[in-house]
Specification:
Structural class: alpha+beta
Radius of gyration: 30 Å
Largest sheet: 6 strands, mixed
Number of helices: 4
Strand content: 15-25%
Strand order of the largest sheet: 1-3-2-6-5-4
Length: 197
């Protein structure tokens, strides 16, 4: 190899270095813009993750309290309905709302199913007589709350599909992330203008 060829080989940039230059801006303005936007994006994503965690916890507590309240109402209703017209057949409550298929309940009296929502199974929804249980019903994950009447002859189960909780959480996160998605390009434009002036 001649000295001219050696000099040309030494001046050829390796492919990795050329690729890095294309990805990362070389000008001071470009590096400043990329650095500031990268930092802002990381902070926003950390904020979104913290919000996700907190919102999920609060949502679970809120929806668990609704299940417990519904169970308490069904226990109270069953205590008042001891009017003697029980023919021994379980009654199916109709689905009255578009979210109703995601929520189900059962009322058991002395071991017999006496009332259930249309979408509830005929077997007991949970083995936990008092409190919360997370389990699979017909292949789908459910959160179920069990409550007993004062004389322990009434057992109520109220359950909710966990997918509905996820849907609510995603709706909350979408409403938070859309403004961020719009603000980031506007912030980039503002920084770019400020750097150029």
């Amino acid at each position: 190899m001649t000295s001219e060829q050696q000099r040309q080989a030494a001046t050829v940039t390796p492919p990795d270095a050329a690729r890095r230059r294309r990805i990362w801006p070389t000008s001071l303005q470009g590096r400043l813009l990329a650095g500031v936007l990268g930092g802002v994006l990381l902070l926003w994503m950390a904020s979104a993750l913290a919000t996700w965690h907190d919102a999920r916890k609060e949502l679970d507590e809120l929806l668990d309290s609704h299940l417990a309240q519904a169970a308490a109402l069904l226990v109270a209703r069953d205590r008042r309905s001891g009017d003697g017209d029980d023919d021994g057949l379980a009654r199916d409550a109709p689905l009255l709302h578009r979210y109703a298929p995601k929520v189900a309940f059962q009322v058991w009296h002395q071991g017999a199913l006496v009332l259930r929502s249309e979408n509830a199974p005929t077997a007991a929804m949970s083995g936990v007589a008092q409190g919360f249980d997370t389990l699979r019903i017909d292949g789908a994950p459910w959160r179920v709350f069990g409550a007993q009447g004062a004389e322990r002859d009434v057992q109520v189960f109220v359950g909710e599909q966990l997918a509905s909780r996820g849907s609510i959480l995603w709706a909350v996160m979408r409403s938070m992330l859309w403004p961020m998605a719009i603000a980031l390009p506007l912030l980039a434009l503002a920084i770019w203008v400020a750097v150029r002036l």
